[in-house]
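Subgroup meeting minutes
Present: P.N., E.W., G.H.
Scribe: E.W.

1. P.N. recapped why we're keeping a running log of single-chain structure predictions: easier to compare across weeks, and new members can see raw inputs and outputs side by side.
2. G.H. added today's entry (403 aa).
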Amino acid sequence: MSRLWIKILTPTTINSIVVGFLFIAPVYSGYPDSSTWIVLENKNSENPVFLVKNALEEVSQDKTEPPTPPENLSQFLQIKVHTGSELVPFDLPSIIGNYRMMNRDLEFRPTFPMERGLTYRATFHQYKFRKFLKIPTDEKMSAIVSGDFTIPRENRIPSTLVSAIFPTSDAMPENLLKFYIHFSAPMNRGNVYSKIHLLNQEGKPVLYPFLEIGEELWDPFVKRLTVFFDPGRIKRELQPRLEFGLPLQAGKQFTLVIDPDWLDAQNLPLKEGFKKPFKVISSDFTSPDPAKWLVTPPRQESRDPLRVVFEEPLDHALINRLISVATHTGEGVEGSLSIHAGETLLKFLPETHWKKGSYKLIIDKDLEDLAGNSVGRPFEVDIFNQVEKQVELKFMEIPFDIR
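Output recorded in log:
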């Protein structure tokens, strides 16, 4: 009766057939009782480390220090993606990283993050390593020590939200110029216009309402996206408007829709989508007039906010940049702005208590309303109308006193 033996072949083993015995050579993996093995440490972190434990094991009892290993350790230890086939992994390139000896252990740290969910095969050429260092080697020692390691997938839960959309008002002019979409965390760039939709009151998409440009208009933190309506469909007498009409029509309801599958910077979808319904009022062709603003000074020696009520909603982002407070001598007053009531109310909170004296609110004339009309000039200028006055100064000032 024949017997089956399975033996790990070393380079000095001679394949032979002995009567009554059959020798079979499987993939080298090391003897179960081998004192050298491979482990993967910190596999749940962003920086997993492969260790060949006891790569320089002692071979004598005199505790002699092992020889200095060669600089090119990559010839003895390779890490490759393992596809499940015994042959394919050896045809794939090794991942790159840094090698070093840690006492008697050989360490490998990948240069780039490893792909979660993939299996990697670590192969240490033990016999070749020891022969190269001229270390006495047992003939029974495995030629290769290997191991397969899977980087576990993260159980990541979507958490990014649309935190706000400006304008916040539920009534928009027919010639609305833009939306600001704010997110709670950085987003993924690219293909944003496929994730934003404008629906009419029948729930049908409005065709091509936005100006789709290759250079997406993100803030430096990739948390605020500016989306312009197509100016060609807003300005009167232009061909796109004559051909397709206004994207918004006065007296009707519309809804801005944000898709929930929009990916954030972590390649996770939004926690949920977002809808902003609003009604449309008549077009606005008039510039904002700071002379019509209501300024309420704070109390002396208080930290009450300065309150400014606009005669119409203004551009949220521009308010923050283009309005400031100064003393009558022009010295800036340090403090913070906050915007309320559908972008019609500004509160300025000083860092220190207000002192008695004269102050001024400084307005850059580039400040715009929702239709793009700036303090300096309207968005559309009718060339057939007489221009009564040319704007010369860059800023306007509204004085107020604290008594």
